[in-house]
Specification:
The complex is a heterodimer of chains A (312) and B (216). With 312 residues, chain A is of the alpha/beta class. Chain A has 10 helices and 14 strands. Helix content of chain A is 47%, strand content 20%. Helix content of chain B is 43%, strand content 24%. The chains are: A alpha/beta (312), B alpha+beta (216).
Chain lengths: 312, 216
């Protein structure tokens, strides 16, 4: 039995050696994101994988479920599998630097998308949406829809994620200019639809007078809208952030009023293009930290939105 | 009496201090001290205003009419010739320009106050100039090649840099303007605008601005 097992192991080792030799023909790119339950991350992973295949790479698509320990293990996997580059949407700014450094020490460059880390010189690229610009767009639309007045609630994303803070900051830099708009509840629903549903129910019970909800992302906006619908409060104005197909469909049906598109699909592709450039030439030719502009989506242009990209 | 009361107090404080004490590595302490001592990105930005921002804009400013016409014809070509953007794809173009013209209208009721300015003398406004105190956008920050996203910690700090430039132009340039007596007066300004598309309305943020005395 033991002997048989050992033989199998040897055979597996030989086989993997063989596949390693073959891997030089098609280099491996690891694509690590949060759970694909959120269509935003699914679109990122698909955008990156499609571009990687187009450029002749093999892909290894993994999810860390916003768990920094799991992310660290996935980096070990990518390193062990001999990945030539890592495309990463990370599991929290503070906890991620060490994992990216670990890959760098193993001579594997990382290309970050969507979420940044607080250090430079560890990753090769950090391409993020211009969340401040996008949040201001969303807030200006929210202010207009609210008629510049009334009580409202805010749903904030996961605290460990810089994007939660910057979006909330961008919202308030605009909304707080209007003294008749009153923030009556501000709670984190950790980017989660189910959590947002529950938080919205509680907020509604305590503050039945609310006229609007501004949300740090689209999944939380969907959760809030479901709770509002269940309570017969479809008069409440909801604005999200991401530009998901779910919110697009809700906008078209007159539910959620607006969202802000992050070019997630293209952003992921751009990261793969920069990885290819870097692997071929030793540099990307651009600054490490890059911002991509966001676009307001409302009933006027919702038709043009498909999988985190706007058709011309 | 006070003294007697003080002693148990001190003792309690001491006890509480010991109980609540946590072992912190000296390395971590040093890192914290360093972080505390480091000036914020926003403070650094404000310090650049007189010495770097104003001289750069004064020197770099191209005639507004030339830039606006070029941008309308072909934004990317105009951007390559007159503009600046730090990131490539997905980032708008920023232009540093100089203009002079007559104020045709002013909206000074809003906290995001603006003035419409006629530059070509046809009596119709060609550009909207921001007067603050609320200055929209991040154009000043984004037009400066010596200010980079890669230099700062994260987007939150980078937004603070933009806000500190907007505050500086309000405090140093716009605050003391005769804002309710601007209509009909000639102004001269150097400043910036950002374009995402050729059809977008021009919103000019001044970095210097002079109002001519009314003609008698």
């Amino acid at each position: 039995m033991l002997k048989k097992l050992m033989l199998t192991t040897v055979a597996a080792a030989v086989f993997s050696l063989g596949s390693m030799a073959a891997a030089t023909a098609a280099d491996l790119i690891a694509i690590i994101t949060p759970s694909h339950d959120n269509p935003f991350f699914k679109a990122e992973a698909e955008g990156a994988a499609a571009k990687a295949k187009e450029l002749g790479f093999e892909t290894l698509v993994l999810v860390h479920d916003d768990d920094a320990n799991k992310q660290s293990q996935l980096f070990d996997t990518a390193i062990a599998r001999g990945a030539k580059a890592i495309i990463l949407d990370n599991a929290g700014a503070a906890a991620t630097t060490a994992a990216v450094q670990k890959a760098k020490d193993a001579k594997i460059p990382s290309f970050l998308i969507d979420r940044e880390i607080n250090e430079t010189g560890v990753a090769v690229s950090q391409i993020v949406s211009n969340n401040y610009q996008g949040a201001q767009l969303g807030a200006e639309e929210f202010v207009k829809l609210m008629g510049e007045k009334g009580p409202y609630a805010e749903l904030v994303g996961r605290e460990a994620d810089t994007n939660a803070g910057i979006r909330s900051g961008g919202y308030h830099d605009v909304i707080d200019q209007y003294p008749d708009l009153k923030l009556v509840a501000k709670q984190s629903a950790n980017w989660s639809q189910t959590e947002a549903f529950e938080k919205m129910q509680t907020i509604l019970q305590a503050n039945p007078e609310i006229k609007g909800v501004i949300s740090g992302n689209d999944t939380m906006a969907m959760g809030a809208w479901a709770a509002l619908e269940a309570a017969g409060r479809t008069d409440v104005i909801v604005v999200g952030f991401d530009g998901s197909n779910d919110v697009r469909d809700s906008i078209k049906k007159g539910g959620i009023k607006a969202t802000v598109l992050q070019p997630a699909y293209r952003q992921a592709q751009l990261a793969v293009e920069q990885a290819k450039q870097y692997l071929d030439t030793g540099k990307t030719g651009v600054e490490e930290k890059q911002l991509m502009d966001c676009v307001l989506i409302n009933a006027d242009n919702a038709d043009k939105l498909e999988t985190f990209a706007l058709k011309d | 009496m006070t003294r007697v009361a003080l002693i148990p107090c001190l003792f309690a404080a001491l006890l509480a201090g010991v109980a609540g004490c946590k072992i912190i590595k000296t390395q971590e302490l040093a890192a914290r001290a360093e972080a505390d001592a480091k000036p914020t990105a926003a403070a650094n930005a404000a310090g650049l205003w007189d010495g770097k921002v104003v001289p750069y804009v004064e020197e770099k400013a191209a005639p507004f009419a030339d830039v606006a016409a070029a941008a309308k014809a072909n934004l990317n070509e105009a951007g390559a010739k007159y503009g600046y953007r730090e990131a490539g794809e997905g980032a708008p173009w920023n232009f540093v320009t100089r203009l002079s013209g007559t104020v045709t209208a002013a909206n000074t009721q809003s906290r995001a106050a603006t003035a419409d300015v006629d530059i070509d003398g046809d009596g119709k406004p060609d550009v909207t100039v921001q007067l603050g105190p609320v200055i929209k956008g991040t154009s000043i920050r984004d037009a400066l090649p010596f200010v980079s996203f890669t230099q700062v910690k994260n987007q939150i700090e980078f937004a603070d840099v933009a806000k500190s430039f907007n505050t500086a132009t309000y405090e140093k340039v716009l605050k003391n303007l005769p804002r309710d007596a601007l209509v009909g007066r000639r102004i001269e300004a150097a400043g910036v605008f950002t374009l995402r598309s050729a059809s977008e309305k021009l919103l000019f943020t001044p970095v210097t601005l002079r109002v001519e005395a009314p003609q008698s």
